[in-house]
């Protein structure tokens, strides 16, 4: 399950307020963000085509368990959830958009192969490594870890 960006941004603001309350510089609070899914392809059309059956299967499971469906369509899920599904440029832009709200320095990418062939899974991870991660490293400074 995932939600739109707003509830998470509110929690992060609260976390930084509490960090400050206890005498720490809010700028030193390490914030991480997770993703509700990941699939990168050369084009957004290909990414959505491949990911659609995965989204539909997960939505069906949620309905069968009586859970509320937050994102009724794949398009809504891609646009408003934390899922990173699309072309490398779309994924980079989305992470940067979230970074503007969260100021996060750590990103957990849900890169399981559920619903993918081994070849698709390998290719999406390779695309993340070759095209997406280097761009994110250039735009988002890493945390300064103190020993």
UniProtKB/TrEMBL annotation:
One term of GO molecular function: oxidoreductase activity
Pfam families associated with the record: Bac_luciferase
InterPro entries reported for this sequence: Luciferase-like_dom (IPR011251), Luciferase-like_sf (IPR036661)
Keyword entries, A-Z: Oxidoreductase
Enzyme Commission designation: 1.-.-.-
Keyword Nucleotidyltransferase: no
Luciferase-like domain residues: 2-104
Gene3D superfamilies: Luciferase-like domain
Name of the protein this chain belongs to: LLM class flavin-dependent oxidoreductase
Organism: Amycolatopsis pigmentata
Taxonomic path: Bacteria, Bacillati, Actinomycetota, Actinomycetes, Pseudonocardiales
């Amino acid at each position: 399950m995932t939600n739109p960006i707003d509830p998470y941004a509110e929690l992060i603001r609260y976390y930084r307020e509490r960090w400050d309350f206890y005498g720490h510089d809010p700028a030193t609070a390490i914030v991480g963000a997770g993703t509700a899914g990941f699939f990168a392809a050369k084009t957004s059309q290909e990414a959505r085509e491949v990911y659609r059956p995965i989204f539909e299967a997960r939505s069906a499971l949620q309905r069968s368990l009586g859970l509320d469906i937050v994102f009724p369509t794949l398009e809504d899920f891609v646009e408003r959830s934390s899922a990173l599904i699309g072309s490398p440029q779309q994924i980079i832009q989305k992470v940067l958009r979230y970074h503007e709200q969260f100021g996060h320095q750590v990103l957990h990418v849900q890169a399981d192969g559920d619903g993918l062939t081994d070849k698709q899974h390998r290719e999406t991870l390779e695309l993340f490594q070759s095209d997406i991660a280097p761009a994110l490293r250039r735009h988002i400074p890493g945390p300064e870890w103190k020993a």
